[in-house]
Amino acid sequence: MSFGANQYKKTSITTASREQVLIMLYEAAVKHTKKAISALEEKNLNEKGIAIGKVHDIIVELHTSLNFEAGGKVAADLEQLYNFIVRHLIDANIQNSDKKLKEVQKILENLLEGWRGAVEKIGQERKK
After folding, report:
1. pLDDT tens digit string along 77-89?
2. Residue 120 included in any domain
3. Distance CA 51, CA 31 (A)
4. Which range of residues forms the domain containing residue 92?
């Protein structure tokens, strides 16, 4: 990535709302899960491991940002889901399992779409 692209990316993250950062994290997790699947299919175990590591780091970040006081049951449910994803990532890495990675991808894509909808709804309510 060029210097200009890196600066643009850094600026877009630092100026984004919390909701936008959340969406960016989910998008990156999906992207890296797809990279891990592709690397596994190409038998590139080094790239697979790197991509899984990036997804893992994103999930850990999402997990640590959970607010159990404000989020209640939703936060608790997300915590369980994040723990499930981490276990699947570890298993996928050890077993070279594209099946587990595809399950993670599906979960992440569902969460991404759900959050996109929630953020859109929040945006519409703020305009009222």
Report:
1. 999 999 999 999 9
2. yes
3. 9
4. 18-127
